[in-house]
Each structure stands twice: as structure tokens, then as C-alpha cells.
Amino acid sequence: EAGVTQSPRYAVLQEGQAVSFWCDPISGHDTLYWYQQPRDQGPQLLVYFRDEAVIDNSQLPSDRFSAVRPKGTNSTLKIQSAKQGDTATYLCASSEGAEQFFGPGTRLTVL
Amino acid sequence: GDSVIQMQGQVTLSENDFLFINCTYSTTGYPTLFWYVQYSGEGPQLLLQVTTANNKGSSRGFEATYDKGTTSFHLQKTSVQEIDSAVYYCANPSGSFNKLTFGAGTRLAVCP
């Protein structure tokens, strides 16, 4: 069974640029999560979906961040006008029960 | 709100040493608690879970004991190996969609 896949694996931007992260969850998993993991910290939940519906996006850092899951399968997290403080690894996870399965993450560096 | 606390940021051991990692939690409900392991360059993966029903979980030689009295959830392994070098997170799921709250993590380095 294929796991959660994410792309790109790495991104390096200048401040002010936009970036999108893409996630393909495990087939059949109805819940999808996006986490931000700053260096040497635990993952922090940003937003999660049940099918195509946003359940909770209250932890998105600002309106520069947005996330969609239009068909209830793949998802995209976008950062408009990135800042140095956005430097982190962005993890996607999916689940159909209590256990969440994580992708390898996208490591973002904002210069 | 719910929280999990890991005080040990870094643990360095030699192969065959005993591992003990502490985690305390604060939650309003009866928790299920998880230990996740994250190897370098990978996402976290579930190592084991413990519920109030069984108070103990084990996987791959690791064991975790849940103690409601002290609100602690410790991870231990009798004899660590170099391949166990990773970051270990305790986590508490909450809500209908099992939203995870992670601790800060404990980085384990095992020297050969």
C-alpha cells in the first residue's frame, strides 16, 4: 500500500514569494491534516479536512496561509508572500481512524 | 486545553543501555496516548499507543506505561541499538477527528 506522498521535498524562497505544497493521502483515508514543524520542535496542527470540508483552520498562522481539498482526496497548502518565520517542515498526514499516517514532509527555507 | 510535556530534549546512550523517556499530560478526558518516532528526513510514524483500558502498550521492544495517578506516560526500552536513534514524541489525540497535540520531542542518540 502506498503511503502519504508530498511534493516538493524541498523549497527555498526569498521573502515575499509564494509557494504551494501538494499532498496525496493514502487511498480511502477521509481525514487529512497539515502540520507545521519548526526545526527541533514537535509538529503543530495547522488545518484538517474531513473529505473536502475544512473541519478546523483556526491554527493557520495568518491569512497568508490557505489550504484546499476540493475532491476530498489530494490537498494543497499555499503560502502567499512567505516570511522568514515560515521556515519549517510542512507535514501532511491522513487517517481513517485514530492513527495518523504522515508523509515525509516538505522542508521550506525562506531567505 | 490538552497538553503534553516532554522535559528531556536530548538523551545520549550507548548500545545496550536502558532507555527511559518521560511524558506528562494534561487532558480533560480519558486519554488515548501515543508515542510517535521520527527518523531523520522522514515524517513521524506511530510507535505504540496506550488507552486507559489496558494501561500498557508495547512495540518493537519498546514499552509504554500509562499512569493516570501521576498523569504520566513513559517510554522505555531495555536495550537500545544504534538504529533506535531518532526523535520520540508523545502525543494526545482529542476531538472527533483525533486532532493530535505533540510534545516537544526527545532526541535519542545511541552511540555504538
General description of the model:
The complex is a heterodimer of chains A (111) and B (112). Chain A has 111 residues and is mainly beta. Chain A is built from no helices and eleven strands. Chain A has strands spanning 5-7, 10-13, 19-24, 31-37, 44-50, 53-56, 65-68, 75-79, 88-95, 101-102, 106-110. In chain A, strands 2, 4, 5, 6, 9, 10 and 11 form a seven-stranded mixed sheet that branches. A four-stranded antiparallel sheet of chain A has the order 1-3-8-7, with no helix packed on it. Chain A is globular. Chain A starts with a strand and ends with a strand. Chain B has 112 residues and is mostly beta strands. In chain B, 0% of the residues lie in helices and 56% in strands. Chain B has no helices and twelve strands. Chain B has strands spanning 3-5, 10-14, 19-21, 24-26, 32-38, 45-51, 56-59, 62-67, 72-77, 86-94, 99-102, 106-111. In chain B, the strands form three sheets. In chain B, strands 2, 5, 6, 10, 11 and 12 form a six-stranded mixed sheet that branches. In chain B, strands 3-9-8-7 form a four-stranded antiparallel sheet, with no helix packed on it. In chain B, strand 7 and strand 8 form a beta hairpin. The radius of gyration of chain B is 13 Å and the shape is globular. The termini of chain B are far apart. Chain A binds chain B through residues 4, 31, 33, 40-45, 48, 50, 55-56, 91, 93, 95, 97-105, and chain B through 32, 41-46, 49, 89, 91, 93, 97-105, 107.
